[in-house]
Design the sequence.
């Protein structure tokens, strides 16, 4: 093969590799949406992973793939206190925003309108955020306190752990343990579970009638 032919082959190979990489990058971007949060919101976690902020600035945009996502954020802003004649820092506790990305390209997360100190303090007590797409259409989202979210994760972990274990026999084929073995396993797990968070979680999830039935059961005991 001549030097010229080798050069052409190498050039063609480089072009094909670059095209494949570019195509992959475009495909990934096409399936992702860029989320921008307003200046008064601080993003701490995305899908249980910490968000890295710059030394002098906070991160305001992230890419989200299609599917369900969970954000941990808080509100923070400064307003003039007319009564005290000074600026006041107003901030909320961290809370959880659950959303679903479908075919959107751009998403914008912001607070409801906060124009003064009084409205800021009302927001801290009862946060309201708005999620818009690139067409300014409002999307459905779900808000949850951080404590409730953590309780839910604990419950999910316990339920997963309490599923019947699989035992690998000497023949390397999986066999399900007997009901007696499963019950013994479950009892061991239950003994190690912190029941207080579990009780709090299910109490919050219970209906009014269920709570009344439970209180009657407690009084009988």
Sequence:
């Amino acid at each position: 093969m001549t030097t010229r032919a080798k050069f052409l082959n190498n050039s063609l190979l480089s072009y094909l590799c670059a095209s494949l990489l570019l195509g992959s990058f475009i495909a990934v971007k096409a399936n992702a949406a860029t989320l921008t949060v307003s200046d008064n919101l601080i993003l701490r976690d995305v899908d249980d992973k910490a968000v890295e902020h710059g030394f002098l600035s906070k991160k305001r945009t992230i890419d989200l793939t299609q599917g369900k996502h969970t954000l941990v954020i808080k509100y923070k802003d400064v307003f003039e206190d007319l009564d005290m004649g000074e600026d006041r820092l107003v901030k909320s506790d961290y809370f959880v925003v659950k959303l679903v990305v479908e075919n959107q390209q751009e998403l914008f997360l912001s607070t409801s309108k906060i124009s003064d100190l009084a409205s800021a303090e009302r927001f801290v007590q009862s946060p309201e955020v708005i999620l818009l797409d690139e067409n300014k259409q409002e999307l459905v989202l779900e808000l949850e306190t951080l404590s409730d979210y953590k309780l839910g994760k604990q419950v999910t972990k316990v339920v997963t752990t309490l599923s019947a274990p699989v035992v690998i026999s000497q023949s390397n084929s999986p066999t399900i343990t007997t009901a007696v073995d499963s019950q013994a396993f479950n009892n061991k797990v239950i003994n190690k579970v912190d029941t207080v968070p579990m009780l709090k979680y299910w109490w919050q999830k219970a209906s009014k009638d269920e709570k009344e039935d439970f209180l009657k059961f407690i009084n009988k005991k």
Summary: Residues 3-30 form the longest helix (28 residues). The two ends are 92 Å apart (CA to CA). Residues 1-30 form one domain. The chain has three domains: 1-30, 33-145, 162-220.
